[in-house]
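Let's practice the habit of predicting before peeking. Look at the sequence and jot down your guess about where helices and strands might fall. Then scroll down.
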Amino acid sequence: MTTATLSEIPAGADELSVWPASTTRLPHGGLAVGGVPLTEIADRFDTPAYVLDEGEVRARCRAYRDAFPDAEVLYAAKAFLSRAMVHRVAEEGLGLDVCSAGELELAVTAGFPPDRIVLHGNAKSPRDIATALRLGVGRIVIDSPSEIARLAAAVGPDGHQKVLVRVVPGISAGGHEKIRTGTDGQKFGLSLVDGSAQHAVARILGQPQLELVGLHCHIGSQITDVTPYAGAVRRMVGLMARIRDAHGTVLPELDMGGGHGIAHRPGAAALDLTALARRLRAELAESCAAAGLPVPRLAVEPGRAIAGPAGVALYRVLAVKRTGDRVFVAVDGGMSDNPRPALYGARYAPRLIGRHSTAGPLTATVVGRHCEAGDVLATDVDLPGDVRPGDLLAVPVSGAYQFSMASGYNMVGRPPVIAVDDGTARLLVRRETLDDFRRRDIGD
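Done guessing? Here is the structure:
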């Protein structure tokens, strides 16, 4: 798979098909990413560690800009955020969507223009709202009725803030029930079915300090089919037409969110970016023409699809245990640096690197070092039959929702993030240490 496309990977694809495009094979079973041998990174920075290919990040940002030349592309910061990532996104001309005052402050203090930032969140704290208004965030997405009065009061009678309304279109999509957000019965957005979205629109239009500029819709995550997006566009345009008819207001923006699926293992499906862009444009034009509406400016919010394939996680094997007919390969990380398998069954493809093995394949379960039976990183994966303590495992497609969801469980400490680019490796985020835990613990 090249970085210019996010198309479905055919069955039987090369085992490196889900790795960064810069990945090259080295003698003796080694791999290099961004021109840097992964074994060198493990030796220099220790394990576990996250490796981020900045060339892959840039290429994927450009792929979105090329696919959506007339739309606004907002990188979803929740997937992975650091100061360096903020710089790469800004350099490639993308906007940013954030979910907290913390993400917002990091982005703005790193130099990102606040007017190109959208603030999300189903339960925004007073600090979130105050920070957004103080820094001059471009858009705030209203997610519940109570936010309308709170936001209007915070803006004040002489203030002004552009807002979107997050609408639940009644479309189910996503790779797991825990990441499907387009239907009623979950915490996000305002329903089309029960009239909540329409009622919120009317209330916002009655607040002069709030400028309703458009609608927002996010139907789920890890979606690999363009069809649900097309259905969501039709329903959103239908709501826009009803808003025009009821209030005489024509909304100029439509944000269709993200959730664009990627392949975590060779042969798995991914969303075709070119097909998505073509279908969204066509559906939007046809629906608006039928409704007699001008075509609004489109926005999309990729996060995982940009950061995920750019990342590789490195682990050292600590133990190999055979229990009955099962083999467990335990590594020096686990659910503290990647909770996704435990949360919603994400599947990965670890690979032995750093030595060449002639042993036959062994079906194993790669587990972490934490005191939880659910601390599993990958099930039913093929590793060399002579895998042993001290071996190095690399896990591709580890750039999204690992660093950002990492925890301090068992006080193991969160791994560092190392950027690779053009043969150079540099530290972006240092490893969390026991001293960090001690400094935060101020009780007696």
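How did you do? Residues 416 and 431 are 4 Å apart (CA to CA).
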